Amino acid sequence: MNFAFSEEQEELRRSVRRFLEDKSPSAEVRRLMETTDGYDPKVWAQMANELGLQSLHIPEEYGGQGFSFVELVVVLEEMGRALLTAPYFSSVCLAANAILNAGTDEQKSALLPGIASGETIATLAFTEPSGKWDANGITMEASSSGSGAYTLSGTKMFVLDGHTANLIVVAARAAGSGGTEGISFFTVDGDAAGLTRTALPTMDQTRKQAKLEFSNVPAQLLGSEGDGWAALSKTLDQAAVCLAAEQVGGAQKCLDMSVDYAKVRIQFGRPIGSFQAIKHKCADMLLEVESSKSAAYYAGWAAAEDNDELPVVASLAKSYCSEAYFHAAAENIQIHGGIGFTWEHDAHLYFKRAKSSEILFGDPTYHRELLAQRIGI
Amino acid sequence: MDFRDTPEEAAFRDEVRTWLAENLVGEFAAIGGGRGTADEEHWDLRMEWERKLGDAGWIGLSWPKEYGGRGATFSQQAIFNEEYVKANAPGRITFFGEGLLGPTLVAMGTEAQKQRFLPPILKATELWCQGYSEPDAGSDLANVKTRAVLDGDEWVITGQKVWTTFAHHADWCFVITRTDFDAPAHQGISYILVPMDQPGVTYRPLRQMTGAGEFNEVFFDEARTPADMVVGEVNGGWKTAMTTLGFERGTAFMAMQLAFEREWRNIADIARKNGAAEDPNIRDRLARAYTGVRVMAYNGMRMQTALAKTGSVGPEASIGKLYWSNWHRNLGELAMDILGPAGQIVPKAGDGEYVLDDVQRSYMFARSETIYAGSSEIQRNIIGERVLGLPREPR
Question: ipTM of this predicted complex?
Fold first, then answer.
């Protein structure tokens, strides 16, 4: 048994960390989070051209590098650590996976190279104003206008980078269908006629969201009609694994900040880290951070293998890592005392990302119920 | 990243599985499954099983071949432990000798001590108990006061030990004594091997809240042992004691996790059968407990990989005991909530008798798991200081 990253994977991690320390320091995160678009096109291009990040796990025949979810997990952890403000999660972890899971070979060849090169910013639109993360949350109906043409009407909410995406993968259902039946994927151009995109002001400014209102928007069917739930479910499981990896990176950073502060902050004549209350908080954080790593890394492997365990491990990792990140981010503020509450200190940036990530794609309670069903309780 | 056995590992696993399938039969198979570190049920039969294991060379797997072991790798040790639990083999009782004193002698004992004590451990013909804690020396182990004084060619030992598992079965005890009352606490300690069967050694069981009395108080009243029974230096016993404690059960971790996962399944079954599994709160807690025991496995596998590759472990290992003891405590509480009022009725209570069933005993024994072998508070101090580098408190 070998539950460790290879030397090449560790080298990838080091390269990405160096790149992000240079291109996504705190000052840049703060600058970009104030913008509507929420990313730097120059850095986005460098991510693609210098490090091939957008193409990492896309198969070679579609313009990618043909690596796996294991490499993706490594990269996402570093992005979470740096709070990278860019449409990477939406383009790579959502849209690209949806296309890989649902699309025909021809469609993959047409759509994936643009994502791989960084030219196409893409996203997945499936949640609606109800905020539900399951099949029942999809009420948008696709209308067939004959000869393979479709139009979409309705509203999609909380769409990551929905306002900047060039390509939008949409989950909608056939009229009259319910539950997991009748669901299909469609692709829509970002500037399609009838599509109104509104950027939403978010509590976590490092992750941009949009409301998308469709009024008879022309759409292309992605894959086959009416049986898209399996592909969507898998895409959501893969998204959960990807998010778990980001959460691990953020949680470790919060632990690092807390420990560094506890060593230098002197009160009552000694570093506050010498008091057991603070020391024990840090120890508990370490337990959760190391455990969340184990969970996310194993989930990355299960996703790479695309094995039977993936659904269970995805929900398990998402729920565990969400709670670990939020606890770490919250305790990080607590350990810093008053200064942890300021805008100027970075603690709040991680705290806000931790909460938005906790909720995205289903909160821990949602995933534990999903897990309970998946393991037959 | 790969979770499959190498061909060598698969061959070894097969060897273990085959031996267990052929030998874990009849009466031995009937007493399978562990019930906690200090469970004493079916003692004689379990000792017979230990001797069977010893004769087949399964005791002291990790010991060097020159001392009668098999020089097994970390991976092989882990495989043996896992297959042992999977086969539902009887709970082990020679742990103190095989897992603690034996490796300590291998690391620090004299040749004479190795020749004298290692073979009987390997054959399970001699049992050990651990004389560490005292009424005034629990977490603060260096505060031991049991006195050892050299009288000619013998040590004379007087004092009291507490929480001594299996004292009433043991042939020998490895005892932490104070041999210098003027030196600073850590520097006046000697680690001495003492035979239990003598007038100067008496014991009485400590009744614990589970009703059972596996732990004992042991009284040394001018007990005697030869002068060459010191392991390590005289007054240098703290190092020996820490060496013993350092033989953490890294390779038994996965086996323990398997047993825990089995417990989880049992509790989930109970919940399904009695309808508790329809309650959303119970479902959530069951899923959380499942998450916890799977993450425990993932942590163990990461640690095992690090051990096998480098011989040492990273931060993921230091959290081991804190993690599993908390998890098991929570599982016990969940189990009792699932059982509801029926779980409050025990097999026997009254007339001095107090017997719990397996689930009840596991729940209650878990209250000691966050305390023994380094309490959770001590674990957090260790993690904070040794792993995270936070400063110690002034004393």
Answer: 0.95
